[in-house]
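Reviewer 2 asked us to include a model.

Predict the structure of this chain.
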Amino acid sequence: MKKIFATAAVALAALTFGPVTTASANDMKADIVDTAVEAGAFNTLVAAVQAAGLVDVLKSDGPFTVFAPTDDAFAALPEGTVESLLAEEGLATLTTILTYHVVPGKVMSSDILGKKLDADTAAGIPVSIDATMGGVMVGGANVVTADIETSNGVIHVIDAVILPN
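Predicted model (structure tokens):
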């Protein structure tokens, strides 16, 4: 089950401003969900988004900015966490956590370079973003790949699952 949770990690922490992997608008073919599925590194996130009933929202017009934790980020959570969240009684908490990874609008890394701010999330709980130290951190997670453009927004890959306070 832990592997399933790690596979469900979907949508971002500290961004490196050196040689950062980015995707251009010319590469846009798919929406946020399809892009995450095609990448193969967000199986847990995708499973979590499906369990929480958020697929249709993240396939809608948006635009959305998604801070997407990788499968490894989900795997780093304490044992049993993913399974608990995917269980029927954990779905409300799962939904809050997932929507905490989503900021309405399309925010590119260049929009926040050199800034420190709190951004409103789809969960209604602000997340701290710090792009002042040579990288980007979102809620304590590092952005490891920025600016993956999709047809309905942008994905920034993060190295941890961020949790609202």
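The chain has one domain: 2-158. Residues 91-100 form the longest helix (10 residues). We have added this to the supplementary material.
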